[in-house]
Design a protein that fits this description.
EC number: 7.4.2.1
GO molecular function: ATP binding; ATP hydrolysis activity; ATPase-coupled polar amino acid-transporter activity
Largest sheet: 6 strands, mixed
Radius of gyration: 18 Å
Shape: globular
Membrane topology: Peripheral membrane protein
Mean pLDDT: 95
InterPro entries: AAA+_ATPase, ABC_ATPase_HisP-typ, ABC_transporter-like_ATP-bd, ABC_transporter-like_CS, MetN_ABC_transporter-like, P-loop_NTPase
Bound molecules: adenosine-5'-diphosphate, magnesium ion
Number of helices: 10
Order of helices and strands: HEEEHEEHEHHHEHEHEEHH
Subcellular location: Cell membrane
């Protein structure tokens, strides 16, 4: 077997992160992160509040500029200053804890606006794709509803459908169910489970350990700006090797 070079591995992966560091002033938030996500893989990132999980996600689509290191997304090195980051971001769907829908637009309009402005799709095509994706998240019939007329779980599913309407190659989720009432979490996780089954590449920051256990191919535990351990859910959640992982799990499980 020939040894894969760093460049070859980065080119084949959906996400490849090498030596990633990020500081805010004197505060070092990411202290040298190395990891990658293969195409079609679902990776869950877990860890205490403040450990750098959101910053890691935000460095993948350059919402934050890394202080050092290299980030490659679908073969494009996004940390290369020559790269057109808007083109790269178009290929990455992002879903946040708060839904970031436009309050003055209907569900359908929330799904068509970026398709029309960014992808330059015509109205009919954008609406057809929007309806398909609203159906995919279980919201057929809610096309004309405004965000305020929808539950938090429904709003988050609109946000997921909006991301899907841009045909992303991968999806980043940052605690997508943390702002939801407990009885609304299940519907959102069901949509994410279906996406994973359809082969979507997903990097998911979550505190939902049952989701991580069932859906993740791999779980990454972060603490204090570093990856402490990673492995299958059985390894990391079921039989953690590190004391810090055990302490964290004891609090969330
Ligand atoms: P997590 O998502 O794991 O809770 P974050 O990545 O949000 O952690 O934050 C990690 C650390 O970085 C925290 O101490 C947080 O206060 C700090 N931080 C995050 N964003 C900024 C910012 N824009 N400016 C200064 N500090 C920040
Ligand atoms: Mg966070």
């Amino acid at each position: 077997m020939t040894k894969e070079t760093t460049e070859e591995r980065a080119a084949g992966a959906a996400i490849d992160v090498r030596g990633l560091r990020k500081s805010f002033g004197a505060l070092e938030v990411l202290r040298g992160i190395d990891f990658s996500v293969a195409r079609g893989e679902v990776v869950c990132v877990i860890g205490p509040s403040g450990s750098g999980k959101s910053t890691l996600l935000r460095c993948v689509n350059l919402l934050e500029e890394p202080s050092a290191g290299r980030v490659t997304v679908a073969g494009t090195e996004v940390t290369d200053p020559e790269v057109d980051i808007d083109r790269v971001r178009r290929r990455i769907g992002m879903v946040f804890q708060s839904f970031h829908l436009f309050p003055h637009l209907t569900a359908l309009e929330n799904l068509t606006i970026a398709q029309r402005r960014v992808l330059h799709r015509g109205r009919a095509e954008a609406e057809r794709i929007a309806r398909t994706n609203l159906a995919r998240v279980g919201l057929s019939g809610k096309e004309a509803a405004y965000p305020a007329q929808l539950s938090g779980g429904q709003q988050q599913r609109v946000a997921i459908a909006r991301a899907l309407s841009m045909d992303p190659e991968l999806m980043l989720f940052d605690e997508p169910t943390s702002a939801l009432d407990p009885e609304l979490v299940g519907d959102v996780l069901a949509v994410m489970r279906a996406l994973a089954r359809d082969g979507m590449t997903m990097l998911v920051v979550t505190h939902e350990m049952s989701f991580a256990r069932e859906v993740a191919d791999r779980v990454v535990f972060m603490d204090d700006g570093s990856i402490v351990e990673e492995g299958t859910p059985e390894q990391v959640v079921g039989a953690p090797r590190h004391e810090r992982t055990r302490t964290f799990l004891a609090r969330v499980l």
